[in-house]
Amino acid sequence: MQIATPYLMFLGDVPDRLAAKTAYGIADWRPEWCVGQMRLPGCAADLGIPDLTLEEARVEGCRTLVIGVVNAGGVLPEHWIAEVVAALEAGFDVASGLHVRLGAVPAIAEAAEKHGRQLHDVRHTTETFPTGKGTKRRGRRLLTVGTDCSVGKKYTVLALERGMRERGLDADFCATGQTGVFISGRGVAIDAVVADFISGAVEWISPDAAPNHWDLIEGQGSLYHPSFAGVSLGLLHGAQADAFVVCHEPTRSTMRGVEHSLPTIGQVIDLTVQLGQLTNPNIRPTGIAVNTQALDEDAARSVLEKLSAEYGLPATDPVRFGVDSLVDRLVAEFPAP
Q1: How far apart are CA 248 and CA 289, in angstroms?
Q2: pLDDT band at 1, cuts 50/70/90?
């Protein structure tokens, strides 16, 4: 899948920043590709890049309209269809990470064919995966897990990839969600894989490797989330993780989109070890990544210090304070062979 850059990021009329997390992820990690944003009235998200019309975006060289939103069920709202059709008519390709296939919408499919434009459904793959086998693979693997969805699992592994490479370590980010695929150019949107093949797909993206190579696998959902725990479990088993980092947002009391209470970090650690031992008996926690965006710096540092002392693990906000402490722990726990 070759998606033409640069992008015009479409945010629609999403109600908050989290609903546009795909767009934010691409803008944060591939800013050179994001020339402008297109928002509808009532949109509560803002990437901090120029608002452009389709005509202005063409003048600026944009080639693909990226639908940078997520929502329950991955649906394309009816009132967005006309905007997508207009983009195709204006000469843009369109890329989406939603569950619904762009080509399944008759008006979009017809416009793409008429104007010779490409439709990219990043969440869907043509690859055929085997079932997971759980056979021991060479190399090392780290998985991010969470107390909830949308707490920073992707940002943590991307920051770790950068930090580990700066230290001379052999590490690769393995994308398991649509935003990660946009950012890395490869990977599998695991939540679109048929359930029987989730663990096999994760084995496929993190195959047998050199003994000192780290695959840094992007986590999804939470083992405690009633909507997404099935995906999280398949990911855990397929990752065969040697190490995992728990990701957490400290200001939430309930999990996103449901009424269930947030589990504690300790509960996530215990359940991840218990279930992860099926494919790696030596799985262990090596750090805590906290999304402190809602806290001022003093409060953020206080939370991190408390969590580190409570669990005996390095705790940091990877975006705000870096990942040196997480890398230090990995180097100490897993010396070069």
Answers
A1: 6
A2: low
Q: Are residues 113 and 208 in the same domain?
A: no
Boundaries of domain holding 100: 7-121
Q: What are 228's two structure tokens?
A: 């997404």
Boundary-marking domain end, from 94, 121, 148 = 121
Q: Is residue 311 part of a domain?
A: yes
CA–CA separation, 330 and 320 (whole Å): 20
The predicted structure's pLDDT at residue 99: 87
- Could you give the CA distance from residue 110 to residue 103 in angstroms, rounded to a whole number? 8
Nearest alpha-carbon partner for 314 in 259, 245, 243: 245
Summarize pLDDT for 96-147 with one digit per residue, the tens: 989 899 999 999 999 999 999 999 998 888 789 999 999 999 999 999 999 9
